[in-house]
Design goal:
- The two termini are about 20 Å apart.
- The chain is globular.
- The longest helix is centred in the first third of the chain and has 11 residues.
- The chain has a single domain, classed as 2-Layer Sandwich (Alpha-Beta Plaits), CATH 3.30.70.141.
- About 40% of the residues lie in helices and about 20% in strands.
- Strands 2-3-1-4 form a 4-stranded antiparallel sheet, with helices on both faces.
- The chain has 7 helices and 4 strands, in the order E-H-H-E-H-H-E-H-H-E-H.
- The protein has about 150 residues and is α+β, with helices and mostly antiparallel strands.
- The chain binds inosine-5'-diphosphate and magnesium ion.
């Protein structure tokens, strides 16, 4: 397996519902290294750039309005096959197809109000990391567990 970086964003409902700690715990417990993290109120311009592939779709305005409705927690995660692994942890886009046990399956009933974004490919991850983080905001670290196991 290859070490990859992926971009994730806990959407505004996460802070508003006071479940940020729970969700970050699930990400840590899976084994991702959090190498970038910040609380951001994203602008409509950044939101539109981030979601530009969806411009013109019926849900686009609603999506931009939700994602800018309050602060998000943007993160860069690193690990083996991080892009696919995180998509699996998140679960399907459609609320009615997101299995229990996944983050989307466990925390949302509506597709438009799911709680987390995750890059869908290595190329998207690179583009999205670049949109949200400067290179000096990404910090690698040594996993202390490696000395014990
Ligand atoms: P993804 O987040 O699983 O990558 P995308 O198709 O890229 O899914 O859609 C981006 C976001 O737009 C979704 O996470 C969801 O919040 C919203 N969205 C996607 N499809 C719909 C829809 O059919 N109705 C309402 N919102 C949608
Ligand atoms: Mg997507």
């Amino acid at each position: 397996m290859a070490i990859e970086r992926t971009f994730t964003m806990l959407k505004p409902g996460v802070l508003a519902r006071r479940i940020a700690g729970e969700i970050i715990s699930r990400i840590e417990r899976k084994g991702f290294d959090i190498i970038g993290m910040k609380l951001m109120q994203i602008t409509p311009e950044l939101a539109r750039q981030h979601y530009k592939e969806h411009e013109g779709k019926a849900f686009f305005d609603e999506l931009i309005s939700y994602i800018t409705s309050g602060p998000v927690i943007a993160m860069v995660l690193e690990g083996d096959c991080a892009v696919k692994m995180l998509r699996l942890l998140c679960g399907s886009t459609k609320a009615e197809e997101a299995y229990p046990g996944t983050l989307r399956g466990d925390y949302a009933m509506h597709t438009g109000l799911n709680i987390i974004h995750a890059s869908d490919s290595v190329e998207s991850a690179q583009r999205e990391i670049h949109l949200f983080f400067r290179p000096d905001e990404l910090i690698g670290w040594k996993d202390g567990n490696n000395d014990w196991i």
